[in-house]
Every structure is written in structure tokens, then in C-alpha cells.
Amino acid sequence: MAWAVETEGLVAVVGGLDGVDLRVPAGCVHGVVGSDAAGPSALVRVLATLQRPDGGWARVLGADVVADAEVVRARVGCTGRTAWFDPRRSGPANLVELARLLGYSRAAALLRTDQLLSGFGLAGAAAGRPLATYTPAMRRRLDLAASIVVRPELVLLDEPTADLDPPCRAGVAEVLRALVRAGTTVLLTTRDLDEAARLADRLSLLSGGRVVAEGTAGELRARAGRPQ
């Protein structure tokens, strides 16, 4: 099986990871669920090469996150709690600038920005406002759009539905499925098992800094004695 993410004995002191063993197959949406946000967020940071592991190892798309960090960064999109943007400029202007920095021509950057604004429900008059006037939900959608400007092979999403209302959460699910159909693997974190069940094909439960259970949402609920 082709693994998009592999970790063994992964340790990150900042974030409380204490020996995480994880395998994420390519071509799916995989959810990492933890009651404490610190552990899953640290996992995303390590996989995105933003935090160096203190022990164990991790490979992303076959590349080591330490020895091959530049290779990993070139193939992965990542959205944390908030992406950096200029609050004085509009959402479209920020996305166009990001696309240009990532190698798009101006025409291609404008086209990709239009696609993303439409896909995340940000088209229209509101999109032209300064980012500082966006609601938390609008800002979150823009953060998610930024993570897939270049159609990466793997997208890492840290609590992608935080601050989003139910209709927007449904829209995120549709975007994730479209990404997988286009060949992108998605790893996301959340503290909500029910939310993870709606978004992900398979889940890993993180507790005490380690993966304590894996399976589909139905399998995990059955083990815990919860109704499906």
C-alpha cells in the first residue's frame, strides 16, 4: 500500500506527542481526533516541517520530514488555525499574491483565485472587502482556500471547521471530497468525533500523546459502546 503519511515512535515535547505510530494511505480523508488540541496540532506541525520532532521519525509522501524537509514542503499544503494574510487587503488580492509567489502567471493566479472563491462561497461583494472586516467563518474559508492554491499531493488541515457554521461545514466536506477525487490525500484534525465522522474516511484517536485506536467512525463507536 502507498502511504501518504508514516510515523513511528514520533515524539514532540511541545504538543505532548509521546510515541505516535500512524499510517495514512494515499487517496483518502484521514481524521486525527484528540480531546486536547495540542497533540493533533503538533502532529500537523511536524508533518508540515514547521516543528522538528524530538524522537522517532515521520515520512510524508516517502520523504523524511527532517532530512528531506524542502521536498516535503514542495508537495504539501497546510492550514493551521489561521494563515498569514495582509488584513488591509481583500481576500482575492491576498490569494492572487499567494498564487503569484507560488509560481502562477498573473492570468493563472486570477483564474485559480476565482475558482477558490467560488468553491468556498467567498465570491461576490463581500470578497472585495478588506480582510480585517471578514467574519471568523469567512476568514476560515479563506485560510482553507490558501492551502490548496497549488493542488498539493497532501493537505494538512488543523481543525478545518473551527468557527464555521453548519452550511459552511457541509461545504468543507464537499471540497475535501473534490480534492480526493483529484488525487490529493487529506489529513485533518478535530476534537469532535462526530465532525470527524462526517469529514473523514478513517480515524485515529490520539490520547496521552499516542494513537490509542484506529478505524472507521462506526468501528470506533462500536468499541466505545456509542450508538451509530
Structural commentary:
The structure is a single chain. The radius of gyration is 17 Å and the shape is globular. Helix 3 (91-101) crosses helix 4 (106-119). The strands form two sheets. Strands 6-7-8-3-9-10 form a six-stranded mixed β-sheet, sandwiched between helices. The protein contains eight helices and ten strands. 42% of the residues are buried. The protein is 37% helix and 26% strand. The longest helix has 16 residues, at 166-181. A hairpin with a 2-residue loop joins strand 9 (202-207) and strand 10.
Explain briefly what this protein structure is:
This protein has 8 helices and 10 strands. It has 228 residues and is α/β, with parallel strands linked by helices.
Strand-helix topology:
Blueprint: E1 3-12, E2 17-25, E3 29-34, H1 38-47, E4 55-60, E5 63-64, H2 69-75, E6 76-79, H3 91-101, H4 106-119, H5 136-147, E7 154-158, H6 166-181, E8 185-190, H7 193-199, E9 202-207, E10 210-215, H8 217-224
Which key features would you list for this structure?
single chain; 228 residues; alpha/beta; six-stranded mixed β-sheet; four-stranded antiparallel β-sheet; 8 helices; 37% helix; globular
